[in-house]
């Protein structure tokens, strides 16, 4: 049987699964799939080599039954799962790298649920489901926040009393697995450029930016929670604290309803009144849809300017994730605001989603590099079990 690492990347309403063959300590992707949860949930698991898609009935939430169906399908296909790696959104101030999920580690993770109440519960449910059905499979955790643990205390601090900062109310940053992958790919593409000052824009349904020097995180747009930073599909990005207090006092009567509003009814959806999907808005001629996209690009460009201050300049801007990789109009919209910084795009290269999309005369290199969080999870999982000789 082919020994494989299985990766679980749980979002608030989706579950991505990857299957990676273990070859000489490396992870070679064999297949995977994504479960989209909601009114008509469905999971399709596809393998490379021409295998047909396997549809698995799922539920409206990530539960043990769905996870067991996924693993059982992988086993029936003749694979031997030797490790299950999980993306965990929040590691708090406790975890600054991948770890083996021993019982005491899981308990410490459960104590962090208050920091990410939307994301941590489904991820922990998957961990428990795998452990219950397959207790002999070691499990590992890869933390989105760990990549940003290199940031200075100045970058991490909020202007609040020290006792609150010490209790964990601080800037963390997210999408770290994506940034780690992109930093590695950029190093393969252009080692000299990768050693410089890079701003990476992870633009998908969720969106954030990270400023790096030599592949090390210096500053990022998201702060205490995945709600902060630039506007997203259904999240507002950074809000004036006074606006939050106003909403709680006048429009919502408890924190749970306000939290649901901030996660699911703001961002591009809130501004456009139509959709949080960039592709839908690009095809819509309603002024509100256009305004939502303009605001998205404007705030991203503004964040690039702020991160340039943190880095002391910028040598390259990298676009990644679904919108960043595929929507040339958004990249053009961002670049439109950054001519003063010396950034200009080659429109033919940009429309082709080429790797290098900056114009020859541009003082800043602009690139498109596809991300792969599951690859990082698999590689970290293999490294962890190798370190523990499992």
TrEMBL record:
This is Acetate kinase. It catalyses: acetate + ATP = acetyl phosphate + ADP. Its EC number is 2.7.2.1. The active site is at residue 144. The lineage of its organism: Bacteria, Pseudomonadati, Pseudomonadota, Alphaproteobacteria, Hyphomicrobiales. Pathway: Metabolic intermediate biosynthesis; acetyl-CoA biosynthesis; acetyl-CoA from acetate: step 1/2. Keywords: ATP-binding, Cytoplasm, Kinase, Magnesium, Metal-binding, Nucleotide-binding, Transferase. The gene is ackA. It comes from Rhizobium redzepovicii. Coiled coil: none annotated. PANTHER family: ACETATE KINASE. One of its GO terms (molecular function) is ATP binding. The record marks 175, 235 as: Transition state stabilizer. Belongs to the acetokinase family. Mg(2+). Can also accept Mn(2+). Its main location: cytoplasm. ATP binds at residues 16, 277-279, 322-326. Catalyzes the formation of acetyl phosphate from acetate and ATP. Can also catalyze the reverse reaction. It is found in: Cytoplasm.
